[in-house]
């Protein structure tokens, strides 16, 4: 059931939702959350289709915010709200869908339009398929949400987007580039559970500007505290991960984007399903948990220049060397550099410090000079 509303208000939209619910024979609200999608006319169809599929697993009220500020001064001076209410079937998934088009000045006040349409006493998730704000937690719509979803892969510079996500991280932030590597992390963790051995290094192979490859390298470097090399391949996505151990190389290789081969020293090779997942599956996974993702925070801040890291971020972690990018594990490297620096400083101080006379005085003091080198009085 579809209801079109032109030049309407949030109150009239709520009334249309109640009317549609009663007409469909389900007056009770059986939804578990509100999903707010902030997008544009060019991308709202794909985003809405993915959200509708995800709502079959998580029944929700989907609010699609499409800003249309207008091009001419006359259009920008107007303020109009158009809405389309969809209930059951089609793009509505297993819940309710409201497509909101904010024209003119109203495009800058999406918060005031969305707030009255949120489900009462239910979590709120905000998703930016593209053009996410620099700091999602400070965005007015972002302040409504317990979970804020962005996608670094949809930006022009994915590595710079990861650096920005690290610098502006707040509890509740997440990125679909991180969600895409969940199967990889699961298989690698299971392989290490089966093979208890010392890890000496790792290599992650994937497309050059793939943020998921960068995040997987950073996660391994942060969790294992070993150097991690970043090799560039033709893709698709992540193609291989190799863990160097005392017993040999643990290799997870996915050349075709669907079926991977896991090789563990001392065990027969076996195939693992690592299909590249759709956006709907990624959104469904993110909606399963609404608490802060601490593993994502640690990984993105480890290489992204977040609070307390003092590093240059993912770009420093990816240094191109002969066609190979290296995501160095900064924790052990920084500690080793600090120890070497302290040793050099101590050695220089010992070499520069003059020997004391038998009476305990320094040569400068014995000659009548001030200890600070100011010369004799």
From TrEMBL:
Residues 52-166 form the Glucose-6-phosphate dehydrogenase assembly protein OpcA N-terminal domain. Residues 301-377 are annotated as: Disordered. Residues 316-349 have a biased composition (Low complexity). Transmembrane segments: none annotated. Residues 171-300 form the Glucose-6-phosphate dehydrogenase assembly protein OpcA C-terminal domain. InterPro entries: G6PDH_assembly_OpcA (IPR004555), OpcA_G6PD_C (IPR046802), OpcA_G6PD_N (IPR046801). Residues 302-315 have a biased composition (Gly residues). Pfam families: OpcA_G6PD_assem (PF10128), OpcA_G6PD_C (PF20171). Signal peptide: none annotated. PANTHER family: OXPP CYCLE PROTEIN OPCA-RELATED. This is Glucose-6-phosphate dehydrogenase assembly protein OpcA. It comes from Streptomyces armeniacus. The gene is opcA.
